[in-house]
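User: I'll paste a sequence; please echo it back and then give the predicted structure.

Assistant: Echoing your sequence first, then the prediction.
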Amino acid sequence: MAAMTHRFEVGSAPCHRGFSLIELMVVLVILGLLTGLVGPRLFGRVDSSKIKAAETQVKMLKSALQTYRLDVGQYPSTAQGLGALMNPPPEIADYWDGPYLEDELPLDPWRTAYVYQFPAENLQGFALYSLGADSLSGGEGINADVGYLPEQ
């Protein structure tokens, strides 16, 4: 049997193998195509999730308003607004047992204050809604008002 010998040269540089420019370009083109196809679908879901978040926040605020009404005997006036859920109006401080929200009064998902009116002509007796993405009354789709609207 012949003995196997390996020759190692001292001081020789190790061989590094990397990606060629063409391989990198192919990967970038594929990533660009995937982003172009999948991206718009994901951004469409962002809009619908903001509408669902606004609906959820309106329901949470409605619950806080109902608890306020049980303690005080009526909903806050339009002038007192939703701030009455966090700080007692002076005229009802003896009955107020809040704050009625765990955190600060939320803005809608489009960073606009919720619209509150009492009294209002609807089933709830108050109006509480978000103006939607365009911050204007009315609209359709993502720009539609979300919540308990006054009857027109």
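The chain has a mean pLDDT of 86. The beta strands are 115-117, 127-130, 146-148.
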